[in-house]
């Protein structure tokens, strides 16, 4: 199943929210991004997830970007780029 990069980012965030049992609000606070930015990413209403934002979100989960991207969701075969 192919996903856009934005969809893969949104799915990975949802996956990690559940695994780490934290809320979107807590993630936004931990990441230093606004709740509305996180909401827009989750609802895929933004066109591009900037790497800087992904770095902040990974930090909000207390993980590296490599750990965040270490998911089959980001395999090139699964993305529509």
Structural commentary:
The protein is mainly alpha-helical and 81 residues long. The chain has a single domain (5-71), classed as 434 Repressor (Amino-terminal Domain) (Orthogonal Bundle), CATH 1.10.260. It is built from 5 helices and no strands. The protein has helices spanning 5-20, 24-31, 35-42, 51-60, 65-69. α2 crosses α3 (35-42) and α2 crosses α4. The radius of gyration is 12 Å and the shape is globular.
Number of strands: 0
CATH topology grouping:
434 Repressor (Amino-terminal Domain)
Number of helices: 5
Derived structural class = mainly alpha
Strand content: under 5%
Name a few traits of the molecule.
81 residues, mainly alpha, 434 Repressor (Amino-terminal Domain), globular
């Amino acid at each position: 199943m192919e996903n856009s990069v934005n969809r893969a980012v949104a799915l990975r965030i949802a996956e990690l929210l559940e695994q780490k049992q934290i809320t979107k609000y807590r993630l936004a606070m931990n990441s230093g991004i606004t709740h509305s930015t996180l909401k827009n990413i989750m609802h895929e209403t933004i066109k591009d997830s900037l790497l800087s934002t992904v770095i902040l979100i990974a930090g909000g989960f207390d993980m590296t970007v490599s750990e965040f991207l270490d998911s089959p969701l980001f395999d090139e075969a699964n993305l529509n780029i």
